[in-house]
Amino acid sequence: MNIYSRIETDEQQLINFNRINLLEKLLSWTMHQNMDTDININIDYKQQSNNSTEKFVVCYYTVPNNWSTTWSLLPKQIDPHICTHIIIGFASIANCSVDMGDDEWAYKEVVNIKNFNPNLKVMISIGGGNDDGMNSEFSNMIKNHTNRKQFIRSVLNVTMKLNLDGLDLDWEFPTWSSGKEIEKIHFAQLIEELRKEFDRSNRKLILSVAVGAPQAIIDQCYIVPNMAEHVDFINLMSYDYHFFVKYFPVTDFNAPLYPNNMELGYLSKLNVNFSAHYWITKKMPRDKIVVGIPMYGHSYKLDNPLNHNLLAPATGFGQLGSNGFVSYSTICQFLDSGAISVFENTSKVPYAYKDYEWISYDDNQSIYYKTKWILDNDFKGAMVFSLNVDDWKNKCNANETFPLTRAVTKILRGK
Length: 415
Description:
Blueprint: H1 9-12, H2 19-32, E1 56-62, E2 85-94, E3 97-99, H3 104-112, E4 121-129, H4 132-142, H5 145-161, E5 166-171, H6 181-201, E6 206-211, H7 215-221, H8 224-230, E7 233-236, H9 272-281, E8 289-294, E9 296-302, E10 314-316, E11 325-327, H10 328-336, E12 340-344, E13 349-354, E14 357-360, H11 364-376, E15 381-385, H12 403-413
Parallel strand pairs: 1-2, 1-15, 2-4, 4-5, 5-6, 6-7, 7-8, 8-15
Antiparallel strand pairs: 2-3, 9-10, 9-11, 9-14, 12-13, 13-14
Helix pairs in contact: 5-6, 6-8, 11-12
């Protein structure tokens, strides 16, 4: 089968949430807000944190569903030195307890990587998608103290049994799907109770939360001061700002660092710079913000191959990847096939096109700008999503595996 039409198992791991529902809610929220859409965030960008200068490189690793495929990244193939933290996903919740399904052995193998790097932290992530099943499990688990206590007990048992260093909560998102304001309060209670029990265990367990990037989600789904007090850090999901949807059928960037010159109002806020600094205005310390960088791109099918600029009309997902998600190795092969790459200097990210195919992605140049920006603004570090869709098989002819993740580490940590 032609590689460009192949559905890659690792890319399928990313397709675990209802993206159209998410964008519809964002647009609805924007239309009904009584606010100044041209609000400016006035922040002292040089404000110093009280944290160590040691920066985090937090890497998500998704357990593939089918271990027989050659496209699946096995734990033993992960370089033990390119991340400070590896977060394994995604476990679920069953009967108010952690449920790893049949993947427990995979968690054990990732933990074994610590034999080659004792400083590496390995955590378990629970959630990982904006689907009704996961949302209902979270909602049921947090709704009373008894259920939360049972969940916390299971977390303590799992982390001890598997020698894990902590927990990452990836609920996408409290209150957002259900409209129940009480979920936000119960989620805050869960975080506070987890912190209390983690401290009581004397095991120095880490607590992180994967959080949304759009202002609408931040405002509706989190009690930020509570979160700031009790988490060790947040993993800002600063990607998926744009992808193909039928009611907004134009090309745009997956994870722009800054808005482009054509974006006004709320659209001008859909970028990494705005999201990270908006979390600060909501009282999240910058030394607890780990900024997400995607290792994958989003593809579009152009309506007219002669019109291939930013905001060009599109008719659907591109042919490459799966449902618009494209791994970095596939993007490299697309470029090798004769695709033209354009670096948009305002947003500091590239896109590439050939015939009807158009892809927004990150490369070494955009990684440089983003990681340098993280350093200049003194955030805690970068989060990589995910190791599975970086070029771990060296298909990009970079003479190294995981080239994008390595680029992040080299700049942030000088290694």
